[in-house]
Amino acid sequence: MSEVKKPPSSGESGRWTRIVTARPRLSLLLALVVTALAVLAGSGVADRMGSGGWEDPDARSTYAAKVLEREFPGSQPNLLLLVEAGEAAGAGVDDPAVAAEAERLTERLASEQGVAGVGSYWRTHLPALRSKDGSQALIAARVLGDEKTRAAVLERIAPHYRGEHGPVRVSLGGPVAVQREVTTTIQEDLLRAEVIALPVTLVLLVIVFGSAVAALLPLGVGIVAILGTNAVLRGLTEFTDVSVFAQNLTTALGLGLAIDYALFIVRRFREELAAGRDPAAAVGATLRTAGRTVLFSALTVAVSLSAMLFFPMYFLRSFAYAGVAVVLLAAAAALVLLPAALVLLGDRVNSFDLRRLWARKRARAAAGTPAAGAPGAVAGAGRGWARATALVMRRAPVFAIATTAGLLLLGLPFLGVKFGTVDDRQLPATATSHIVQQQIRDGFPGSPGAGLTVLAEGVAGPADLAAYRERLAALPGVRVNGPVTSASGSGTAYFSVVTDGEPAGEQAQDLVAEVRKVDAPFDTAVTGQAAVLVDAQKAIAEELPAALTLVVLATLLLVFLLTGSVLIPVQAVLLNALSLTAMFGAVVWVFQDGHLSGLLSFTSTGDIETNLPVLMFCIAFGLSMDYGVFLISRIKEEYERTGDHEGAVRTGLVRTGGLITAAAVILAVVMVAIGSSRVTNTKMLGLGIALAVLMDALVVRSLLVPAVMKLTGRATWWAPGPLRRLHERFGLSEGESAPPAVVAQAPGEAPEPDRIPAGSR
Question: How far is residue 757 CA from its own chain's centroid?
Fold first, then answer.
């Protein structure tokens, strides 16, 4: 029989409690000062962020793009001026007046600083630059520099070209215009999401806590975490690229995790107050119990998000920066600022209990019938969780098999996933750059930037170029233009290889591999949308095993340190993975296949951006572990107290089921607000994570976990001798003893209404 684990030393716990609560007013004042400084430090962060980062910076396609921009800026135009002839122009774009105005615009664009490689239909007479009906034609150019520089150039020149110019009307498109419009749209959508999420979240918190005072505490923690993370991201933009999409994660996780942690801590604090402790002692007991669980939860979420640092694309790395920062700041605020506030509030944390006011009104109207939110109703809710858990455990094999099969069935659409890249169709159909690109797709026989570009370096002479061109032209279904040689005499040239179909479709991706196999007497590098996509997929495939290994091993280790069990960490990994199946299946069914596209207002491209599944896995897995740690820690505490495995599972669900469900619903509300974005990838991220969170709380934690733990029985807590001794030395648990309110409750019995404070119900 294993030795009973000793509680943590009172000296260690006392020191931490004194640090946090000795001067609560000073702690809160310092927090206010730091938050104000964070507001100043983080101001303007969105304007310094980029909307790209989908490509591998070390890939050959990226190298080729940089050389081509330097040597042949006209080979890869990223700014398109769609010139539409007015009704008075009888000959369309070939009308003399239209041609003269278009030439003037072309010359003006060529003289702009930061713009190179300007060409137009009126200079080249290329059929690809003229619409099929002759009413529109293109001016193409390359805006030089990195993302921030290109955005600044576009902001400066766009007002001078957009709109009416005599006999023509000009609209702006191309990758630079698309990226800029994505950035501004995300900023506007994020502001709207915050306006929606904050008041709705506050209402839900009042419903959960009852007390309006207690409901404001999680929002305070979340705001501190969000503002602090913005300051961190602003600092990072001085050294590296950061994606504007990461701001959405900052808001969602900042609010969501702050609410999770505050719910857990405030609930435990109220339990300790109800047990007769004074506020300072209640905070100390809370930090020794719920505080440890919050710390473990934050570590597991941070590890899951940090796995994105393995990938070279700055889009994914940005989410690691934002995610790890906001998780750690939310935990720090919950473990330092929140306890200080609770010491000052004391019993006043239960003030302004709006549910009791409502319950009194109902009581007067319905003599003797408990109102929703009243004590009798709360006890009923606790008994409901106890009965539901008992039913699941009585029919454990049925629930385990049925739930697992259902989740796997929901995930089946993901087997047909197709990976693609980001284009203008991420934007709403009313966005200007989307309209321009759609008109080019529908009305032009070709467009600048389509197909592949092959860079040739170290060319000895024209004969080698001619021989290589013949080999390229021998590939089935392609047209080869070039070579175009550099005027610098550096022995550099490029070819354009064009094929039918989507620029980054499956046919174009297959062509990348074929072109790269063609023998050449000089160095070659292939770029273009399809080549960038192929290289990004390769980079993800190469780094994915290491990222998954980190997530799995860290999860196994942290959960083992929390529980001392060998089986529970394995269960946690497998059940968390199962909770994600519905999310991945829905992403393919909805966003790739286009179901519900009308209802959700997006344009389906027939594929999923390559980086998104990795991002969604890391976020959703981390959040699943967040809820898993809350549940497992309470079950373990009950098991250590009573030695009754089944009773511990029932009581753990009774004590945390409502808490986890409430936290999941509130986080889902925040994610749905993010998912209301007009940018498809942000919509997919928000709605997908919301679905994963709800499935985890309502299905996995409520049904699958108790069923599996019933089947594994007392073996759930087994560990071999060496590991058991390791845990006894280094492991942590939620508490040294159960609070009196829990001790008085038999395993699986509903909480007594007068012993459980409102916030824990």
Answer: 35
Please report how the helices 705-712 and 375-394 are oriented relative to each other, as an axis angle in degrees rounded to 10: 50
Residues 6+ apart with CB under 8 A from 229: 42, 250, 254, 322, 325, 326, 329
Lowest mean pLDDT among 209-218, 260-269, 671-680: 209-218
Task: For residue range 317-357, list pLDDT tens digits in order.
Answer: 999 999 999 999 999 899 888 888 898 888 887 776 665 65
In 3-state terms, what secondary structure has residue 446? coil
Could you tell me which of 674, 697, 695 has the C-alpha nearest to residue 686?
674
Read off the tokens for 95: 């009308």
The pair of three-digit structure tokens given for residue 72, joined into one six-digit string: 């042949």
pTM of the full structure: 0.85
CA pair distance 287, 13, nearest whole angstrom: 8
| Helices 175-209, 645-675: inter-axial angle, 10-degree rounding | 140
Chain center to CA of 718:
36
Give the model confidence (pLDDT) of 604-657 as tens digits: 988 999 999 999 999 999 888 888 888 998 899 889 888 899 999 999 898 888
Taking each helix axis from N to C terminus, what angle separates 314-332 and 290-306, rounded to the nearest 10 degrees? Answer: 170
| Segment 22-64, tens digit of pLDDT | 677 887 888 888 888 888 888 888 778 887 888 899 999 999 9
Tokens of 40: 């100043």
The alpha-carbon radius of gyration of the chain (Å, integer) is 30
Q: Each residue of 224-233: pLDDT tens digit?
A: 899 999 999 9
Cβ contacts of 113 within 8 Å, gap of 6 or more = 153
Cβ within 8 Å of residue 681, ≥6 positions away? 245, 422, 426, 609, 612
What's the gap between Cα 258 and its chain centre?
A: 16
Based on DSSP, count helices (H) and strands (E) in the chain, helices before strands: 29, 11
Q: Choose among 739, 743, 741: nearest CA to 753.
A: 741
**Residue given tokens 């404001």 in the structure block:** 216
- Mean pLDDT over residues 393-413, rounded? 95
Instruction: Give the confidence band of 700 by pLDDT, cuts at 50, 70, 90.
Output: very high
User: Which H or E element spans position 550?
Assistant: helix 529-563
What's the rounded Cα separation, in Å, for the pair 668 and 444? 43
Give residue 259's pLDDT: 84
Q: What is the dihedral of CA 54, 59, 61, 63, to 10 degrees?
A: 110
Using DSSP bridges, classify how beta strands 493-499 and 478-485 pair: parallel, antiparallel or unpaired: antiparallel
Question: CA–CA separation, 354 vs 185, rounded Å?
Answer: 38
> Do the beta carbons of residue 654 and residue 378 sit within 8 Å?
no
**Pairwise CA distance, residues 637 & 742, whole Å:** 10
Phi, psi of 63 (to 5 degrees): -60, -45
Residue indicated by tokens 């705001």: 223
Using the 8-state DSSP alphabet, how is residue 264 labeled?
H
In 3D space, the residue among 345, 445, 524, 417 whose CA is nearest the CA of residue 126 turns out to be: 445
Residue range 716-732, pLDDT digits in tens: 999 888 888 888 877 66
The Cα–Cα gap between 173 and 158 comes to: 11
User: How far is residue 377 from each of residues 338, 380, 488, 666, measured CA to CA in Å?
Assistant: 29, 5, 82, 21
* Residue-wise burial string across 271-308, b where 16 or more C-beta atoms lie within 10 A, e elsewhere: bbbbbebebbebbbbbbbbbbbbbbbbbbbbbbbbbbb
Task: State the pairing for strand pair 419-420/608-609.
Answer: parallel
70-80 per-residue burial string, b: 16 or more CB within 10 A, e: under 16: ebbbebbbbbb
Q: Which CA distances in Å does 385 have to 265, 283, 382, 653?
A: 21, 28, 5, 7
